[in-house]
Each structure stands twice: as C-alpha cells, then as structure tokens.
C-alpha cells in the first residue's frame, strides 16, 4: 500500500535516542502522507528519530476513513524488494493482487503477509464499504533471506487472548503462551489491544525487545503518560512489564523485536543495503523486468521518482 518517496539514506537501528527520564520512553509524532490518489494516512515509521523497531521498519495507520462518495483506496502496481508487507484491517475490506497471481480479499482481523524477497509487485484497492481502518507495516528481511523467492500468505485467523478487560490479537511472535502462525524471519512481536471495558493492567514485555505502542482508537495511558492517536511511544530494551490504561472501546497496536543489527537503506518501496541495489531495482521496474506483472488491476502502474 505504501508509496514511500524519500531521499535515500542509511537507517541505523542502533541510534542513541533522548529518552524521557520519567518513563524511559520517547514520544514520536506521526506525519501525514498520501497513499494512492486521495487517501491521507498517519506515518509512524520510519521516523527521523527512530528508523526501526526490531525488524519493523515501516508503519502506516489509515483511517477510520469514510469512503462514501470517493473512489476509495486505489494503489496501482508497484514493486518491493528486501521486505515483508504486513496488512491488518480493523474495518472494511482490501483486495490484494500480486505478480505471483494471488488475488485475495482481506477483511477485518485478518492478515495479508507478502514476502518480497528478491522482488515482487502488487496492487491494492478498497472494496465497497463506508469505512476503512487499519495498519500496514513493513518488516526488513535479514541479509540471510532477503534474496529469497517471493511468496504470499493470507491468514484468516490469529490467536485471541483475554487479559483482564483486554481482548488481544497476537499478530506476530509469541505472547502469554500463544504463538502467531504468521511467518517472520526475525524475533518480533505484534499485538492489537481492544479494551472491552475500562481497564488498567500490566503487560509482560521481553527485556531483549524494544517496543512501539500506537493508539488506533482513543488515547491510551502508558506508565502514567498519555499517548494520543498521532503519537508512537518508543520503549527501549530492558523492561519486563509496562502498565497500560485504556478506556472502553480504545484500541492500540504494539510492535516490538530484538534491535535490527543491520543498517538498511529505504527508498520508495524498496529495502536494501546499497544505493546500487536501489538503482538496479528501479531500472528493472521501469523496464518491466524482474518483478512480474499484476493482472486484473484497472489502472496505471506506479512510476518511481529519480533515484539520485
């Protein structure tokens, strides 16, 4: 879904950050970005102060969007290398098509995981609905597997966990003796929290992981600190639990993982290690080579900006 257009730069996951002395955390403000022709989203990662959280290197929060009297979400065919795209709707439906021949409708609570590896292209569009809400993330593939053959997997169900008045969906990794079936290649965690009633509780954390917490509906309180919907709260490694307070109906996303030890280069829709790889991928896409073709999408493929 994402169309990241930025000056190529090395994103170092081992940066030293200025952390709050009160909570040992950092608040990162999201920025608005345009996806497709008419959809404005909140972009939480990459951020100029925090490029990765574990291997998670990209996070868009879209919606809730009222699509009545609009063309809806339409993102034409575009390429990826070196990453996994992770799409999770909270409301509405999205149709995914890719150059492997996949055609998959994704609905609320389901996960689409596309592993780009050495190269894949895809297109996305919303299906008729009044509201669209969800997140899309990228996961940087470690060097050992980033040139693997591409693949696509749709997960209709992920584990559901009840903790006090929290309904928790385990999107990736392991949590409270449950394991997500979603296939990833780095130590990661992904959780969606839904408060079924006002609640205050402690969530266990993996001390080896760094974390990001993003409200999706309503504000939340983490360690007595208010976090609003336009803020990603970063927590460094070393913590074994965190207090959370949510009002009934509030929802939040938690991502985390072991710090990604490889320096990555992100530009447009590519995750790589060198500028030369970016230029090669761009040339291949412009020449209709290496990425295959997406069949069935009624519209133009996306064109990359100049890779300087």
Relevant terms:
308 residues; seven-stranded antiparallel sheet; mainly beta; 49% strand
Q: What does it look like?
A:
The protein is 4% helix and 49% strand. With 308 residues, the chain is mainly beta. Strand 16 (174-175) and strand 17 form a beta hairpin.
Could you give the topology of this structure?
Layout: E1 9-11, E2 26-29, E3 31-35, E4 39-45, E5 56-66, E6 74-80, E7 83-91, E8 94-98, E9 103-106, E10 111-115, E11 120-126, E12 131-140, E13 151-155, E14 160-163, E15 166-172, E16 174-175, E17 178-179, E18 188-195, E19 199-204, E20 210-217, E21 220-222, E22 225-227, E23 231-235, E24 241-246, E25 251-257, E26 264-267, E27 270-272, H1 275-286
Antiparallel strand pairs: 1-26, 2-23, 3-4, 4-5, 5-12, 6-11, 7-10, 7-12, 8-9, 8-11, 10-13, 14-15, 15-18, 16-17, 18-25, 19-24, 20-23, 20-25, 21-22, 21-24, 26-27
Care to give the gist of this entry?
Helices cover 4% and strands 49% of the residues. It has 308 residues and is mainly beta.
Rounded to the nearest angstrom, the radius of gyration is: 18 Å
Q: What's the SSE pattern?
A: EEEEEEEEEEEEEEEEEEEEEEEEEEEH
Class based on secondary structure composition and strand pairing: mainly beta
Describe the strand arrangement of the main beta sheet, using strand numbers: 2-23-20-25-18-15-14
Give the distance, in angstroms, between the N- and C-terminal Cα atoms: 23 Å
Beta fraction:
over 45%
* Helical fraction: under 10%
Low-confidence stretches: 3-21
Biggest pleated-sheet summary:
7 strands, antiparallel
The count of β-strands is 27
Summed over residues and divided by their number, the pLDDT gives a mean of 91
General shape:
globular
The oligomeric status of these chains comes to single chain
How many helices?
1
């Amino acid at each position: 879904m994402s169309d990241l257009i930025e000056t190529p730069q090395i994103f170092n996951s081992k940066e030293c950050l200025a952390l709050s002395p009160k909570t040992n955390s950092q608040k990162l403000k999201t920025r608005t970005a345009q996806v497709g022709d008419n959809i404005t989203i909140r972009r939480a990662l990459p951020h100029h102060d925090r490029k990765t959280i574990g291997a998670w290197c990209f996070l868009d929060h879209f919606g809730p969007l009222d699509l009545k009297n609009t063309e809806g979400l339409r993102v034409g065919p575009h390429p990826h290398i070196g990453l996994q795209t992770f799409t999770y709707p909270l409301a509405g439906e999205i149709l995914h098509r890719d150059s492997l021949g996949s055609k998959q409708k994704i609905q609320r609570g389901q996960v689409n995981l596309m592993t780009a590896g050495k190269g894949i292209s895809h297109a996305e569009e919303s299906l008729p609905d009044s509201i669209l809400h969800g997140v899309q993330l990228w996961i940087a593939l470690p060097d050992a597997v980033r040139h693997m053959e591409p693949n696509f997997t749709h997960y209709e169900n992920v584990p559901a966990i009840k903790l006090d008045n929290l309904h928790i969906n385990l999107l990736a990794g392991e949590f409270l003796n449950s394991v997500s079936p979603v296939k990833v290649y780095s130590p990661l965690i992904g959780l969606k929290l839904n408060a079924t009633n006002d609640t205050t509780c402690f969530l266990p954390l993996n001390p080896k992981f760094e974390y990001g917490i993003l409200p999706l509906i309503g504000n939340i309180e983490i360690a007595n600190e208010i976090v609003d919907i336009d803020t990603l709260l970063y927590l460094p490694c070393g913590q074994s639990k965190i207090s959370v307070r949510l009002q009934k109906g509030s929802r939040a996303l938690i991502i985390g993982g072991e710090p990604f030890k490889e320096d990555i280069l992100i530009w447009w829709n590519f995750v790589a290690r060198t500028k030369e790889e970016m230029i090669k991928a761009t040339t291949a896409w412009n020449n209709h080579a290496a990425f295959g073709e997406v069949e069935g999408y009624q519209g133009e493929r996306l064109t990359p900006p100049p890779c300087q």
